[in-house]
Amino acid sequence: MIFGRSERGKPPVEPVTLKILVAGGFGVGKTTLVAAVSEIRPLRTEELLTEAGRPVDDLSGVENKHTTTVAMDFGRITLREDLVLYLFGTPGQERFWFMWDELSEGALGAVVLADTRRLEDCFAAVDYFERRSIPFLVGVNCFDGAPRYPVEDVRQALDLDPGVPLLMCDARDRESVKETLIGVVEHAMAYAADRRQTVTS
How confident is the model at residue 41 (pLDDT cuts 50, 70, 90)? Predict the structure, then answer.
């Protein structure tokens, strides 16, 4: 099956589409993650960092970053002929957070990327999804040269609910990103099943 076409003699399959958000602080690797796994050329809304933004854009730990997402990143991955994931990377800077409400509409779940050098930068994303009851997992992006900590130490530092998955990932690596996305889908399905059971019991 080629996306958009069916095999000869078979009716076309209308795929189920799922929406996953990729959130986190400034410079944490959201654009990189979407690009690593997207089967299409990702849509990016990046602009160059300017001197005017220097007072509000903290580049500590990401001094080599020269661009920033101002609206969203968009990518797509076909898991099966009848199941397609749409990925939406959110802007990380506070002045663009107004976009989050629009992007989160209809989302199945989210990946919150964290950087151990700037762990506090993902607090806002964790708080956002907790408040809106959107299932999410935390992916600790393993940057070269960044300190490595045991998973439980990171969980404690983020004050995560025990039910929130936390895993190590590499936003540059396609297989690592796929495992992370599978984790989000599985967590979101379990979360939805738990809520249905709570309603019916």
Answer: confident
Which residues are CB-contacts of 53 (< 8 A; sequence separation ≥ 6)? Answer: 68
Q: Show Cβ contacts of residue 81 under 8 Å, excluding neighbours closer than 6 positions.
A: 1, 13, 15
Burial (CB < 10 A; 0-12, 13-18, 19+), residue 84, is middle
Supply angle C-alpha 29, 190, 14, rounded to 5.
75
124 token code pair: 């806002």
pTM of the model: 0.78
- Of 74, 70, 91, which is closest to residue 17 (Cα–Cα)? 74
Q: Per-residue confidence at 70, pLDDT binned at 50, 70, 90? A: very low
- Residue 33 CA: distances (Å) to CA of 85, 155, 157, 181, 196: 14, 21, 23, 10, 32
Strands of the sheet with 166-169, listed across from one edge: 43-48, 67-80, 83-89, 16-24, 109-114, 136-141, 166-169
Torsion angles phi and psi, residue 190, rounded to 5: -65, -40
Q: How far is CA 191 from CA 90, 135, 188, in A?
A: 22, 7, 5
Per-residue model confidence (pLDDT) at position 53: 45
The whole-angstrom distance between residue 47's C-alpha and the CA centroid of its chain comes to: 20
The Cα 122–Cα 118 span in angstroms is: 8
Query: How far is 21 from 88, CA to CA, in rounded Å?
Result: 5
* Mean of pLDDT values over 46-65: 50
